[in-house]
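Appendix B: a complete holo record

For completeness, this appendix reproduces one full record from the ligand-bound portion of the collection. The bound molecule is flavin-adenine dinucleotide. The inputs are the chain sequence and the ligand SMILES; the output is the full three-dimensional arrangement of the complex, encoded as structure tokens. No fields have been trimmed.
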Amino acid sequence: MHDLIIIGAGLAGSCLATVLSRQGWDVVLLERRHLPQHKVCGEFLSPESQISLRALGLYDTVANLSPIHMDHAQLTTASGINMRVGLPGQAWGLSRFVLDQVLLETAAQAGADTRTGATVGDVTTNDEGCTVEVRTQEGRYTLQSRTAIAACGRHPPVGLRTTSDRTDLDDYQSHVGIKCHYEGITMPQRVEIYLFPGGYAGVAPVEGGRVNLCLLSTRAAFRSVGASHDAMLEAICQWNPSLGQRLAAGTKLPDTQVAVAPVDVRRLPMPWDGVARVGDAVTMIPPLCGDGMAMAIRSAEMCAPLAHAFLSGECSLAEWEQRYTQMWHHELDRPLRFGRWFQTLLSQPIRSNVLLSLGNLMPFLATKAVQATRVPRHARDFNVGTLL
Ligand SMILES: Cc1cc2nc3c(=O)[nH]c(=O)nc-3n(C[C@H](O)[C@H](O)[C@H](O)COP(=O)(O)OP(=O)(O)OC[C@H]3O[C@@H](n4cnc5c(N)ncnc54)[C@H](O)[C@@H]3O)c2cc1C
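The structure of the chain with flavin-adenine dinucleotide bound, as generated:
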């Protein structure tokens, strides 16, 4: 019987596995992919994520990967209106290819039993603990643990699916994400967001002199170009000519191109469902605001001391659930709500022109809007220490 099984070695899962293994717990970290692999993500690691990385003892690990530093963002509408807004600190541009692999290795070095190519098919929980069914290329096996944590991103395995994991999305609710690296583009050290009808594309410099392009579009817009990834990458350069100019000198690196669908950006948050959920397993953080990774790491930071308290016998499962759920909602409901609101507004051309023009007239409003979508820094006053 293991102490803890963590399902998914994305950011949230690997961070949690590292912290709890360092505390001496017998942790198994299961990941269905073989790493390193490219992942659909803007690869913009916000200043807030660095606060959580520091708290988890992982700041130096990531800082040593030579991320590109950025201190502002520029938004551009399809009709060419620009708005520049400062970030609440230095953000980092770093590929998920490197980041996910290094965090997984760090978890292994901390003592976690890390298994890749291991897909969790089903999870059952009872008073004794959890039984997790694992599928690999070689066959199936089961593992037992005192508890489990779902860090499996947007699509939980069978036993952890709930009604909030919707499958009935129409072409305007369901989204498609595509990402690709480019070489040969010289750009300022900032993140650039290009809006187009039905979505947006983020462009950010990452390590190795590359630039990452990542778009999120409604399935309706994607279908309008014949549902082809390459056609979509060409179409957005026409829909937003400023983006076309930014990418004009670049060479696309086809082996870095990946896509994901469906992406449901309106799923109800569910921090607990039989077991704790962290990161995107709780809900999809609106990607436009570039704080999904910060929220994933912050949820790991919130969950780790409670998992430790449960495993040490200092709190019951019910107390862990109540405290974690309360803390998650207290801290992340507001940025989630604002993030969804801005993402919806900015995906419509007329509204995005009005909003950016307003932001140019009143820059303090733009700064306030950015702050409203971030993991709040003051929230650390309401921490696990005060709850336990
Ligand atoms: C288009 C787009 C752009 C984005 N851009 C940004 C950005 O610029 N900045 C930012 O901060 N955030 C961004 N995000 C959000 C960010 O990518 C996520 O919030 C973040 O990756 C969540 O981390 P996680 O650890 O919860 O999940 P993930 O990183 O998704 O990790 C989950 C892991 O679980 C594994 N897994 C899933 N199911 C199973 C299973 N059954 N068994 C075993 N393993 C399993 C998966 O393979 C995966 O490795 C973006 C998202 C999208 C869609």
